[in-house]
Design goal:
150 residues, alpha/beta, Rossmann fold, 6-stranded mixed β-sheet
């Protein structure tokens, strides 16, 4: 186990602080991408932003979303299947090194040991709770210990 996976509930992020027309904000996804790109410079992470197929009909910048999907920067789930199911399936396969960023509680799925970071976006900055950098510092030490003992 050399990497930590971070899975972002992109639909949840996009709907945070909707536009005045109740549309999801593509800019929120850009803020998260920039945050994770910067984080990856200091920590061994792999990350994916996963969205519901329905988001393309409810977002303020459909063209930007389509470009990001085509470039592979955002993963769109199949129609009529919630992204939550794919996010949680991945977590169930890799619970020891997967983190989720979402304000969703996922209570209906009854997943034990879920590592879920809540967020706000303030002045175009992503703020996570708990602080992901501190968590990754602790996890990185654990990963090094595991690799040394392997």
């Amino acid at each position: 186990m050399d990497k930590v996976y971070i899975i972002v509930d992109g639909s949840n992020i996009a709907f945070y602080k909707r536009t005045h027309k109740k549309k999801a904000k593509y800019k929120n996804l850009e803020i998260v991408k920039e945050f994770l790109h910067d984080l990856s410079k200091n920590f061994p992470i792999c990350w994916e932003i996963v969205i519901d197929a329905s988001l393309r009909h409810m977002i303020d910048d459909k063209d930007a979303l389509e470009r990001a999907i085509k470039k592979g920067l955002i993963i769109q789930c199949p129609d009529k299947i919630e992204a939550d199911k794919f996010i949680l399936e991945f977590f169930s396969r890799h619970p020891e090194n997967t983190l989720i960023i979402s304000n969703d509680n996922f209570k209906k799925y009854k997943i034990d040991n879920l590592i879920n970071f809540k967020f706000v976006i303030l002045f175009e900055e992503l703020i996570l709770e708990p602080k992901i950098e501190q968590y990754l510092d602790t996890l990185e030490l654990t990963l090094k210990e595991v690799n040394l003992n392997a």
